[in-house]
């Protein structure tokens, strides 16, 4: 098992956040999150077209759902390598791989922006919402390009703007009436929406040396909270959504008011049969090194 967690990196803030704060929450809410974003990862995987015998790099592999899916695609003659900066999530990913009896999966802690991947070692670099958090995205994409150099493929999914994603935007806006949600001063700063600008994303990929670049819109109905009942979904958004930190830091009265406002925002989209269903919009990106 490799571990590059001690390597010099420019991404200390993101690493600390995903290792200490977000990672444990993602592990605890793994099932709900897999149901929420799973369909988008499936579409990115379809565009990447992993096939039997190939070697795949999963960037930001998280708790491992995508590792298991990719391992099924490439079969026993292929291999899947997962990297993520969150040690709790990598531990969970390896646990799931072992529980499933997969012999063709390896996951380890590493910062994909600076990790010294073997040049041309992979046929496909894939990511489900794991590539928007680099301090230097051009350097990170260039590093991933070297890992698949010689004609390898890249395929990933990333979010469009928060305003194009009502499942995040509406509850966040509701909470903002009661708690101070810090808005990013730089829309391109590392975070979920760093690649929301399609033209910038195209420029980064071509600047990093990729060809045959496609950035295509993809819309899907999101199972917010993984199909849970309404109050559980409210708690899910208050743990994982953009307003989560502000609600945690607010006084009890403000936090309760924010909770009520989020519930009110989500209720029109709720049914007992399906839970909260709201639109989600992303970019499906494909390119060749």
Description of the structure:
By secondary structure, this protein is α/β, with parallel strands linked by helices. It has a domain at 12-161 and 187-223 and 280-288: 3-Layer(aba) Sandwich (Rossmann fold). It contains ten helices and eight strands. Strands 1, 2, 3, 4, 5, 6, 7 and 8 form an eight-stranded mixed sheet that branches. The two termini are 27 Å apart.
Structural descriptors:
289 residues, alpha/beta, Rossmann fold, eight-stranded mixed beta sheet, 43% helix, globular, disordered N terminus
Number of helices: 10
Mean pLDDT: 94
Structural class: alpha/beta
The H-and-E topology, N to C, reads as HHEHEHEEHEHHEHHHEE
Quaternary state of this entry equals single chain
Largest sheet: 8 strands, mixed
The CATH architecture name of the domain at 12-161 and 187-223 and 280-288 reads 3-Layer(aba) Sandwich
Number of strands: 8
Shape, principal axes of CA atoms: globular
Q: Quote the CATH topology of the domain at 12-161 and 187-223 and 280-288.
A: Rossmann fold
Q: How much strand content do the residues show?
A: 15-25%
Amount of helix: 40-55%
**What is the first-to-last residue Cα distance?**
27 Å
User: Which stretches are low in confidence, meaning pLDDT under 50 for 5 or more residues running?
Assistant: 3-8
Radius of gyration in whole Å, from Cα?
Answer: 19 Å
- The CATH C-level class name of the domain at 12-161 and 187-223 and 280-288: Alpha Beta
- Superfamily at the CATH H level of the domain at 12-161 and 187-223 and 280-288? Vaccinia Virus protein VP39
């Amino acid at each position: 098992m490799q571990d590059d967690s001690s390597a010099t990196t420019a991404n200390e803030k993101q690493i600390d956040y995903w290792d200490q704060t977000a990672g444990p929450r993602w592990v605890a809410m793994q099932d709900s999150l897999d149901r929420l974003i799973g369909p988008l990862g499936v579409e990115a995987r379809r565009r990447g077209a992993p096939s039997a015998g190939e070697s795949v790099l999963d960037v930001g592999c998280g708790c491992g759902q995508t590792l298991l899916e990719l391992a099924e695609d490439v079969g026993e003659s292929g291999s899947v390598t997962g990297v993520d900066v969150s040690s709790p999530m990598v531990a969970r990913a390896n646990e799931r791989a072992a529980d499933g009896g997969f012999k063709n999966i390896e996951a380890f802690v590493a910062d994909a922006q600076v990790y010294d991947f073997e040049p041309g070692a992979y046929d496909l670099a894939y990511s489900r919402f794991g590539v928007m958090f680099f301090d230097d995205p051009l350097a990170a994409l260039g590093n991933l390009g070297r890992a698949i150099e010689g004609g390898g493929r890249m395929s990933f999914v990333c979010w469009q703007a928060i305003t194009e994603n009502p499942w995040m935007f509406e509850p966040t806006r509701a909470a903002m009436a009661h708690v101070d949600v810090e808005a990013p001063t730089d829309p391109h700063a590392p975070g979920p929406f760093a690649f929301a600008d399609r033209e910038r994303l195209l420029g980064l990929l071509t600047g990093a040396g990729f060809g045959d670049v496609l950035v295509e819109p993809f819309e899907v109905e999101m199972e917010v909270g993984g199909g849970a009942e309404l109050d559980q979904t409210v708690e899910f958004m208050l743990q994982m959504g953009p307003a989560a930190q502000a609600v945690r830091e607010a006084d009890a009265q403000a936090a309760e008011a924010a909770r009520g406002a989020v519930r009110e925002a989500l209720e029109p989209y709720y049914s007992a049969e399906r839970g909260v269903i709201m639109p989600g919009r992303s970019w499906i990106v494909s390119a060749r090194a």
